Amino acid sequence: MVTEVRPFGVRCNIRCHYCYQNSVREAGESVPAYSLDLIKSSVERLGKPFALFGGEPLLMPFADLEDLLSWGFERFGRNSIQTNATLIADRHIEVFKRYNVSVGISIDGPGELNGLRSAGSSERTSAATEKTTSAIRSLCQSGLVPSLIVTLHRLNATQDKLPMMNEWFRSLDGLGIRTTRLHILESDSMEVRLKYALTAEENLRAFLNFHHLETSLEGLSFDVFADIKKLLLAQDDKVACVWRACDPLSTPAVQGIDGNGQRTNCGRTNKEGVAYVKADSIGFERYVALFHAPQASGGCNNCRFFMMCRGQCPGTAIRGDWRLRSEYCDVWYGLFEHFEAVAVQDGKTPISQRKDRIALEKALLSEWLAGRNPTLPQLLQTTTSRS
């Protein structure tokens, strides 16, 4: 479980064209004054290390930032932060090192390839990109190597842009970057989608390009490929939350805390400016529905990858309707199909090819109906002991 502390809600110092939080901003989200005491009290109740999140968490005054990170270190021994890194200065790096802060940085590529992370004008955006790039270098040189989140879109992942991205990732590999998460562009805006989103074929081509690139890198890896390989071999206990049947009304994998201490859901489930109130209990209605609903109606019925994918993140559901599967189903299906073939070639039997797959799916459905969400190893152990 990740505890995301958002002192300023979705307030940010830049305006990414595609940001999934834009609809909440445009709806006029009211951000009350934050209280360190209320934030700490809410974190204490959850009893887990926290990640500073946003928007942009480094908008917080430096003294308050250090206070919160110092407290988190004393309480849990570590902290983390997700930032666009444009505001990182030497004093931030010193504090991050002092309080064992893991740093995640959002950037889409070098120079113009990062253009959708807009700072207002092309000149300011270029300057902001250079600040982020400089921060990555400084963090690596200080021994505090960040992880990266990279969103794929028409400015950085069409076929003509992929060679530049490959060179960039090679340079990051040389700096010591080890973990990168690839995102497909998400936006409530149809205008943004039409202008910047890749087609399913382009997304799949880009993913497979980066998988091929990964084999030539010294240490940098893309976690989506590791996750899919694990899922196919029924090892889902340490994969990203998007594969673990997340309940969109309680988002148990992400516990948000606003600046006034109020608990909130993962922001990816907020659509058309509406932020759901966090439910008191976890439900699996989405996954029961997806199991039964025909694929032609937005469901997953009879998909051999259902136990692994589970319709993917509800925040990316078709038409923003969490009852339906991910709108990027074609991309995920293509990747599962690719790595399934690789596993078979390596002499392994992916769970999608098991003779008892249907029985396992029905067993998983029974667990969801009983309000439980077992890992695949737990499911296999339970069904094996019963038989």
Explain how this protein is built.
It is built from 14 helices and eleven strands. It is of the alpha/beta class and 387 residues long. It has a domain at 2-198: Alpha-Beta Barrel (TIM Barrel). Strands 9-8-7-5-4-3-1-10-11 form a nine-stranded mixed sheet. The chain has a two-stranded antiparallel sheet with strand order 2-6. The model has no long low-confidence stretch (mean pLDDT 94).
What's the arrangement of secondary structure elements?
Elements: E1 2-6, E2 15-16, H1 22-26, H2 36-46, E3 50-52, H3 62-76, E4 79-83, H4 90-98, E5 101-106, E6 117-118, H5 122-141, E7 147-152, H6 162-175, E8 179-184, H7 190-196, H8 200-214, E9 221-222, H9 223-232, E10 254-258, E11 263-264, H10 285-292, H11 306-309, H12 329-345, H13 357-369, H14 376-386
Parallel strand pairs: 1-3, 1-10, 3-4, 4-5, 5-7, 7-8, 8-9
Antiparallel strand pairs: 2-6, 10-11
Helix pairs in contact: 3-4, 8-12, 9-12
